[in-house]
Amino acid sequence: MKASILSRPSAIAPIAMSLAALGLVLGHVALFGIVHETDEGTPAHLYQLLMAGQVPVIGYFLLRYLPDQPAGACRVVIAQLAAAALAFAALYWMESQ
Known about the structure:
By secondary structure, the protein is mainly α. It is built from three helices and no strands.
């Protein structure tokens, strides 16, 4: 019996990275409020690394599992993209304030 496709590290890592990026945005707002800075700080760079670092992991996941389990892989990728959209939405909300 095959293990669940969601239990694969390449399925979980992008979701965890998106949630970490979301935590950075919300944590920064909670600690410092919404401040428009002239220079990007460490949280902004970490956010960028977390969001950009997901792309090759999602690509690997698609190449590895899409041919074998297309329905399950599509559901996982939708969850990964939803988590990334949530992180981007929080950043957009913070920047629009």
